[in-house]
Amino acid sequence: MTNGKRETENGKGRLRSWVRVLAVGIACLIGAACRGERVDLRKLETLVTPAEHQAGEASFAAHCRACHGPRATGTPQGPPLVDRIYQPGHHGDAAFLLAVQRGVSAHHWRFGNMPPVPGVTESEVRGIVGYVRWLQRQVGIE
Hints:
- Helix 4 packs across helix 5.
- By secondary structure, the chain is mostly helical.
- The chain is built from 5 helices and no strands.
């Protein structure tokens, strides 16, 4: 092997090592953000839902509460939506619409797959998302 070829291979090896280190670091950061500190759900107990989110709350109660719990705090059947995993930067509003329309494969939790929810209109989902985002903001998830 020529000296130049060996240097190129060593350079690629070092680059691969740095890429691996960077990838592991990013994965750890993402994992930490997703596992982040638990939010204080007690803050939700006494809240009065503002008028602009009451229709979303009613739709949530009709279509989501059985699995995601009152105030979206979770149940043994489904995860809490008031959790840092569902912050807007990680699960955008469109993700909620797709979840309702198509269902979701389990990927953050061990509750199993979420089936599609028939009969929920896009307008209702927008109201539900508005309500959930309001709940999230009340506990510091933004």
